[in-house]
Every structure is written in structure tokens, then in C-alpha cells.
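Re: [ENG-882] Designed sequences occasionally contain unexpected residues at chain ends

Forwarding the minimal case from QA. C-alpha cells:
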């Protein structure tokens, strides 16, 4: 016979009737709009004071206004979504929320404190979710009385456009919580991929490994342009150098160093690679945004001519990066980070525009990944 649940064990499997969003910044406002539109249930957004809440509600309204102006929704749909949205300070109105998601500053101590505070405000059946992009979900739940009700629910930005949600499973999470998270992601019109609670989760871990390999080649003397030429067979939407410039050099270098701390030498960040975090751009572009060369500051760090015995040809450089990505795919599968290659392919396509036919398919064709 199946085990009988303990009398004090709540059920997390019930339908969602109300959502609470902790935070009223740009990301939180986007989340509030999405939940109100797609689930069509009450959504309450909160922050430290009413001024912040009002700013969040104003941003939510502007998101809906843009959707109307672009013909995505009509005025009636906008009014319907706004009627579902409410903003109150200090967690007021959260006591009957079934799903509470935080979108506050990306700091472990801050998120731990916030989740512990709001656990005390909600009912025992409420599911707690974190939108962290890189922090340990189990670590965020370290101060909870019932950490089994916490799940990672990682959106990509912009929320309305990006189709992937990484559902992050901690070792102690209740299985009903994971299933509700998967169902909620689907109800929001997103594609959920369940991953384990490891640094970088799936997408950022693989993107960063590819980036680390490319930057290490440049550090060793292979010109950036040569590395980029060698990457063509991988069918990437942009090179790791362009990606770091796009996300912001300071942020990108921080992410790389965090992965180095978690995984060691294969993610090592060299001195010159770390120094690009002080720059704002790497490449000069014309009026059509086509690259015309490197900025003087970037060229000073990474000259266009080969330097030293470590310089490789384009083909050799491409093979090094392909092997690095394949190695990380294999490690993630061995660790159970993702269920299989299909999940990795789906996640990387939806979040990073890697090849639709699958990055693992491309790697297999190139001989970097075993069939």
C-alpha cells in the first residue's frame, strides 16, 4: 500500500487561484503581466513601499500599451489584464496566494531573507518559486521551514518573447511542486525544461563553457577573428565574443568567474579576458550595425595578428570549441542536469538560438560528440 501522507503535510497539487510577485522592478513587472494575461487569475505585486509598487504597476501598464500598439492584443485584453493586477507594499494580500515568485536583486543573502520572510506570510499550500538565473535554489531555500515547496523557475529576458523556462529541481523538492511548475510554464505559453540545481543550470552553463573555450584561445594568441572563423561549422547565432559584448562585458565576465569558481580550470578566465569587463564595446560598427573592426581598447588587449606558439588555425580553434561544448554536454548528461540530448537541444535553441536541428546533432556530425 502507498504511504499515507502525514496529517501536517500540505498538498501542493491544487489549481492556482492567485499569484504573488515579490519585487516591482522591470523583470517582476513583466512576470506580473504574463501571469495576469495567460492564467487570467488575480496577481498581486509587492515591494518595500507603495512608491516602488506604483512604479511597477506603471511599467506593467506600459508593457501592455506596447502590446496594443503593436497589434498583439486589443484594448479589451489590456483592460482585462490590468483588472487582474494589484499592487500592495510589504506583502499585503499574499496570504491566499497559491504561487509566489520572487524577482529581486540577484544576491544569495537577499533572496534567502526574502523567501524566509514571505514563507511566513503565505499559507502552507503555497508554492514558492525563484527566478534566479545563477544562484543555488537549495541555497536560496536554506532558511525555509518547508524547503520542499521551493522550485527554480528561470525566465529569460524579455519575458514576453523568450519561450524557455528552466524548471530547477532541488534534491529535496516535492514532486508535486515540480509538476505544478511544469504545468504552469506550459499554461504561460512557455516550454519547460526540467534541470537539476547546479551552477548555471543548463543554458548559461553551456554558453559559458563555449565562451570560456573561445576566450582561452584568444588568451593563448589566436586572433579573435580566427577563432570566430573557426566557429562557423557550429552554426551559432553569434560568436562568444559578440555575446559577451551584447550581455554587457562586466556582467559577462562576472558570470564566467562564477562558473570558474564552481567548475574549475575548464572555465578559467585569463587576465586579458577579465580586463574586457572594464570595456563597454569590443567592435566598431557602421550605420547598419555591421562590424568594421575592433575598438582600439579591445585591439590593445587582443591584437588582430597571431602571437606566440599557442596560436591556432581557424579549423583547429573551431575544433577546440566544439570539443569543449561536447565535453560539457557529456558532463551534464552524466550528472543528470538534463534528462537527455533532446532537452539540451530544445533549451539551447529556445534560449540562445542555437541550431534548431540541435546543437548535439551538429556536434555529432562534426565528430566532437559520440552518436
Amino acid at each position: 500500500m502507498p504511504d499515507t501522507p502525514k496529517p501536517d503535510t500540505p498538498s501542493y497539487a491544487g489549481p492556482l487561484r492567485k499569484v504573488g510577485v515579490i519585487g516591482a522592478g522591470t523583470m517582476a513587472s513583466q512576470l506580473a503581466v504574463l501571469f495576469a494575461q495567460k492564467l487570467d487569475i488575480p496577481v498581486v505585486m509587492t515591494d518595500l513601499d507603495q512608491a516602488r509598487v506604483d512604479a511597477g504597476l506603471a511599467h506593467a501598464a506600459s508593457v501592455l500599451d506596447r502590446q496594443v500598439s503593436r497589434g498583439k492584443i486589443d484594448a479589451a485584453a489590456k483592460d482585462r489584464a490590468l483588472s487582474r493586477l494589484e499592487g500592495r507594499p510589504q506583502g499585503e494580500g499574499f496570504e491566499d496566494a497559491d504561487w509566489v515568485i520572487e524577482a529581486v536583486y540577484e544576491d544569495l543573502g537577499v533572496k534567502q531573507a526574502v523567501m524566509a520572510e514571505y514563507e511566513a506570510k503565505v499559507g502552507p499550500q503555497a508554492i514558492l518559486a525563484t527566478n534566479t538565473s545563477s544562484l543555488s535554489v537549495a541555497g536560496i531555500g536554506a532558511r525555509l521551514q518547508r524547503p520542499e515547496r521551493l522550485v527554480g523557475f528561470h525566465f529569460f529576458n524579455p519575458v514576453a518573447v523568450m519561450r524557455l523556462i528552466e524548471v530547477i529541481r532541488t534534491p529535496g523538492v516535492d514532486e508535486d511542486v515540480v509538476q505544478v511548475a511544469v504545468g504552469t510554464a506550459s499554461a504561460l505559453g512557455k516550454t519547460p525544461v526540467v534541470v537539476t540545481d547546479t551552477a548555471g543550470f543548463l543554458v548559461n552553463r553551456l554558453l559559458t563553457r563555449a565562451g570560456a573555450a573561445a576566450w582561452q584561445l584568444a588568451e593563448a594568441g589566436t586572433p579573435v577573428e580566427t577563432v570566430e572563423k573557426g566557429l562557423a561549422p557550429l552554426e551559432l547565432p553569434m560568436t562568444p565574443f559578440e555575446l559577451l559584448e551584447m550581455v554587457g562585458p562586466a556582467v559577462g565576465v562576472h558570470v564566467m568567474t562564477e562558473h570558474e569558481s564552481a567548475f574549475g580550470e575548464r572555465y578559467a578566465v585569463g587576465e586579458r579576458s577579465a580586463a574586457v569587463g572594464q570595456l563597454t564595446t569590443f567592435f566598431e560598427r557602421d550605420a547598419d550595425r555591421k562590424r568594421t573592426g575592433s575598438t582600439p581598447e579591445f585591439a590593445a588587449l587582443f591584437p588582430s595578428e597571431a602571437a606566440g606558439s599557442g596560436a591556432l588555425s581557424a579549423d583547429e580553434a573551431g575544433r577546440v570549441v566544439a570539443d569543449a561544448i561536447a565535453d560539457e554536454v557529456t558532463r551534464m548528461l552524466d550528472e543528470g542536469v538534463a534528462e537527455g540530448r533532446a532537452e539540451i537541444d530544445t533549451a539551447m535553441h529556445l534560449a540562445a538560438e542555437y541550431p534548431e536541428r540541435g546543437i548535439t546533432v551538429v556536434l555529432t556530425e562534426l565528430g566532437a560528440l559520440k552518436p
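QA comment: On inspection the terminal residues look reasonable. The chain has two domains: 19-196, 202-366. Proposing we downgrade this to a documentation issue.
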